[in-house]
Sequence to fold (322 residues):
Amino acid sequence: MKILSKKDVQVPADVPANMKEIYAANFLKMTHNTGRLMLFAGDQKIEHLNDDFYGNTKLGQIPLECNNPEHLFRIASSSKIGVFATQLGLIAKYIGYNSDYKNLPYLVKLNSKSHLVKNEQKDPLSEALWNVDDVAEFKKNSKADIMAVGYTVYVGSEFEGIMLKEAAQIVYNAHKNGLLSVLWMYPRGKAVGSKDDELKAHIVAGAAGVGSCLGADFVKVNYPKEEGKKSEEIFKEAIESAGITKVITSGGSSKNPKQFLEETWNQIHVSGAVGNATGRNIHQKPLNEAIRMANAVYGITVEDKSVEDAYKIYQGSSNASK
Fold:
């Protein structure tokens, strides 16, 4: 894999001249000089309430330590990641509580909503809770290592116009401050249809293309699934649709670790994605196991490891230390 330098970074034209160096530095740090992104997703405390942090999953009991938000920070501070995505309020609380967390690589998720209101009741709308100016001010005052912002757009919602406008302004203002932008691009709403419709490759590709039009540096989409078709092959439509905007995939609910690592490898090496956003497949595990899993995902994403070598990292039979 080629190791990138600042001259290799494609800086968007809306990044001011005095911010180009900062933008390039943030890009290289987030991707560990590879252009690939391992995003540790810690924004589900709002998105899924406590469903992801307490109780049972298909794989068994969620460990009790997962219910404490600090579990996310402990994982992020002890494993290999590109960036830790969570809300500004959580970052402020925990770097105030433990100054060691100040140096974690952060992406501030600017909008979030719970999953309680279903599409049948109302199409999804998730407006910004903070703006880029808030993030820039917090970064300056706290000295937190914030490199990017994120925002979710529900394409196909009757409220998509509100979210599209906010997303466009967030990307533009992020670039003005030398920050990168990651847009969660999810087709959702009555006009889109069922969960099966949301995962159709053509719909996913359309959402990826919209993210590119909004100027995103990375778009995060769900891995397409269609009966009788190989996901890694049909996902190529979304990669092409995004053009030079980089595509990462949502990890989804917890899976068998070997299966998840195989999917991650295929997404990158067959489909052409540049990374992943992994939450539940990491944090729904006891701390030491979660750290090993994060390092295994990082191994495939950034270090070009095979599925077999990454699985050895997860098992603890290979050196997974930072």
About this structure: The mean pLDDT is 96.
